UniProtKB/TrEMBL annotation:
Organism whose genome encodes this protein: Streptomyces lasiicapitis
InterPro entries, per database record: DUF1697
Signal peptide segment: none
Name of the protein in its database record: DUF1697 domain-containing protein
Pfam families xref list: DUF1697
PANTHER family: BLL4334 PROTEIN, DUF1697 DOMAIN-CONTAINING PROTEIN
Highest taxon listed in the record's lineage: Bacteria
Gene3D superfamilies tied to this protein: SP0830-like domains (3.30.70.1280)
Length: 185
């Protein structure tokens, strides 16, 4: 028995950055359609795709896409898949005043699994002020007034020791809200 069609977003980590690990969005759309997904759309060139699926769950869909991407492009791509309800809940749970900030000042790092606060307990938040972070449901919210590219806290939070065993991929607030909009049925 097939499940009802659901809307998802695929978040690809580390593609189309600095001219390497190129995944053209037209080929990504074709790849997802070839896996049997419908209503495939992409956003920007940084690996955001929205699609419908009537089989699988977030983890199995991500694994299927990761394998297909490796076959197609010849390199490993870490993929997170999240359903529309989760994306909306993350946006609605933002602990920072998103409506008063520029999109480049607020970021969400999506994690492949729940993250306990003690993982980040050694980060001295006061040393990075005015930058701040808060944990959410498989997500980390980062307020970086000068943007992620200049964020010392963002750099610290993504150190391998803190993200060990996780897939972690970040999106700015403009992309977070666009993905919610794109997955809103």
């Amino acid at each position: 028995m097939r499940m009802a069609t659901k809307i998802y977003a695929a978040l690809l980590r580390g593609i189309n950055v600095g001219g390497s690990r190129k995944v053209p969005m037209a080929r990504l759309r074709a790849l997802l359609e070839g896996l049997g997904h419908g209503d495939v759309r992409t956003h920007l060139q940084s690996g955001n795709a929205v699609f419908t699926a009537d089989h699988g769950d977030e983890d199995s869909l991500a694994a299927e896409m990761g394998e297909a991407l490796e076959r197609e492009f010849g390199f490993t791509v870490q993929v997170l898949v999240r359903d529309a309800a989760y994306l909306k809940a993350v946006a609605e749970s933002c602990p920072f005043p998103a409506d008063t900030l520029e999109g480049k000042q607020l970021h969400v790092t999506y994690f492949s699994a729940p993250v306990a606060a003690d993982r980040f307990a050694g980060v001295d938040q006061a040393a990075f002020l005015p930058e701040e972070f808060r944990l959410g449901d498989r997500a980390l919210y980062l307020y970086a007034p000068e943007g992620l590219g200049r964020s010392k806290l963002g750099e610290t939070l993504m150190r391998p020791a803190l993200t060990k065993g996780l897939i972690a991929t970040s999106r700015n607030w403009n992309t977070v809200t666009k993905l919610v909009e794109m997955t809103d049925a």
